[in-house]
Model the fold of this input.
Amino acid sequence: MHTLLMAKLKTPPGDFDELKARFDEMAARSVASFASPRLPTKVLVDQLDIPRTSINNWLQKKVFELDADKHRRDGEDRLYSPRDAVMFATASQTSAIGLPLATAKALGAYLVAYIEKGMRTVQGFSARSHVVIFRRPGGADWEIIHYSPDRPEAHFFSGGEWKQAPLANRLDSLPPMRVEFNVSDFVADIVNVLQGDMMLVAGNADDMRNKKKSAA
Done:
């Protein structure tokens, strides 16, 4: 991946290590920012239309492992990371179509890992990447396929676990009743909605809490 970038930019061999180091540093900052808790509950409720009752229910049952909980001290309000927001938005939108919470959680965790992997690579993630959610006629279990038309391999969720396998003609046998969305568009919608809030609270959790105290 890095060799490909060097070739495209016609980077002299002697400068490759410096270029790689700069990219790795930038990627690390992106991943750290993605996991930085700075979004109050009100933002998730007002900007992403995630029901407050759903959030409270998930928190009470400890459904998700959240950055908000990792960095929270006793008595402090929770501040959520963009990564938390992606998991919550995925659960909220997919459970609304009947997807069981456990499956929605698995999809949210998978998308978060996919986004972070894209941040760490030069190519990022495919703009043509799609997720298909469906249940076959007479079947009890929901299934998920994550694929890109330009790649031979896809990821399949069935029976409670993800597996990688050739896509082949698997899409031809999908039931007509299904939900499909573009992953890039889904993530972009979340980021675009939160953009102003993430810029306003671009620091870490302590910075955000200090700003709230100063404004009080």
Notes: Residues 16-34 form the longest helix (19 residues). Residues 1-34 form one domain. DSSP finds nine helices and seven strands in the chain. Strands lie at 39-40, 79-80, 130-134, 143-147, 153-158, 161-166, 178-182.
